[in-house]
Design brief:
The structure is a single chain. The chain has 4 helices and 6 strands. A hairpin with a 5-residue loop joins strand 2 and strand 3. By secondary structure, the chain is α/β, with parallel strands linked by helices. A 5-stranded mixed beta barrel has the order 1-2-3-6-4. The chain folds into 2 domains: about 70 residues; about 120 residues, no CATH class. Helix content is about 30%, strand content about 25%.
């Protein structure tokens, strides 16, 4: 007796397409690598968030605590001194809520501290005319500023080609304590002071700890791994007889 068509079996057969296999072999390691890269980014961002939370809960530091400390990133600080409004740094290409602007930084001579401290007063919107720099009210006399200490964590730096300031205020593409020493010709604390919103001299603050939260990086990693799995499945189907195997009829 001849078996019915829907009961017949067809064995799996590998019938490779060299071009498709080559494309898959090139794409698969890339997708997997991107997934692990995003997991690594998530771990890095989580360490930053953990450090921020731990140091923000610690008591604010003063002049006596600064020089001997080794971990002051995101630590609250209260510093007293004079801001140098005559030599102001305007940090370019700072976007806030989708609007272009600048961050305003000034050198502070801190009472009881031999080195200067770079103070980030916050964000201001930029004019449509690039030649028009923002007008900022000076903060005169001895003041006590409140904020969080921050050390630049690297990242992308816009090459502005400035090594010597010929005219103040200076509009620059990036800033760090080390570069402040170059621009001002003075010694600076390795950390800048980012002002709290309620501090004297503060503009628009609200500093983001990380640009992308760790959970988002983990989500991106899952997407890359899923794409890698889909690629494997599609490669198997495209290089075998699975797509041609008869299906059981529906009754």
């Amino acid at each position: 007796m001849k078996p019915e068509p829907h009961l017949s079996t067809q064995r799996f057969r590998w019938q490779p397409n060299k071009k498709l296999l080559l494309v898959s072999l090139c794409l698969l390691p890339l997708l997997v690598l991107l997934g692990f890269w995003q997991l690594d980014r998530a771990e890095q961002k989580q360490r930053i968030v953990d450090q921020y939370n731990a140091n923000q809960q610690a008591a604010p530091v003063g002049v006596s605590d600064i020089l001997g400390a080794t971990n002051l990133q995101y630590r609250s600080a209260w510093l007293r001194g004079n801001l140098d409004a005559s030599r102001r740094v305007i940090l370019d290409n700072r976007v806030k809520n989708g609007r272009p602007g600048y961050e305003i930084l000034e050198a502070m001579a801190v009472v009881g501290l031999e080195v200067k401290v770079l103070v980030n007063r916050g964000w201001v919107p930029a004019s449509l005319d690039r030649n028009q720099l923002p007008e900022i009210a000076d903060l005169n006399g001895v003041v006590q500023l409140r904020g969080a200490l921050y050390q630049t964590l690297g990242g992308y730096r816009l090459d502005d080609g400035i090594s010597l300031v010929s005219q103040w205020p200076a509009r620059v593409g990036w800033i760090s304590a080390a570069r402040a020493e170059e621009l001002f010709g003075e010694t600076f604390l390795p950390y800048q002071l980012r002002l709290d919103q309620d501090s004297p001299g503060a503009l628009h603050t609200g500093w983001a700890t990380v640009s992308v939260q760790p959970a988002k990086h983990t989500g991106y990693a899952v997407q890359w791994f899923v794409m890698a799995l889909v690629l494997v499945i599609m490669t198997i189907i495209a290089n075998s007889n699975l797509a041609d195997r008869p299906k059981s009829p529906k009754y």
